[in-house]
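Much of our argument rests on the idea that a fold can be written as discrete symbols. In the encoding step, the backbone of a single protein was reduced to a row of integers, each denoting a local shape. We regard such an encoding as a compact summary of how the chain folds. The record that follows shows the chain in one-letter code together with its fold in token form:
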Amino acid sequence: MSSERDKPCVLHEDTFYEYFKPFRHADAQYDIWGGHGLETFGRDFDTVRRHDPAFVWTVVDGDSGDQWITIGAHYVNRVCYLVTELPHNWIPMEFRVRSGPHSLTPLGLKRQVSMLKRLLAARSGSRGEG
């Protein structure tokens, strides 16, 4: 049975970049996803499989034309993989990447980062309970 707690928190992609800080992996073979992405095949995929999974994310295609940045390595509808400086620690969250140009205002970004920090603190502080 799924609870409200199991539903992923949905945030804007700007929040992902600001907080988790994706980077171009030194072993990346291709220049995809703004230079941050790792391909879904070959040496890039080998790099993803060797990397600590708590720092791996998958960009997937959504139904509405948008894309989503999701925790962990997925295989269905995947576009590419991302690695970040900070771990996701398997806390359910997704970041929406709209198909058209759309950015948060500085205030909106600050609010979402604050909300994300509260979520991470609450979820990591309650691990092992319940």
In short: The chain is about 30% helix and 20% strand. Residues 65 and 103 are 17 Å apart (CA to CA). Helices lie at 13-20, 42-50, 106-125.
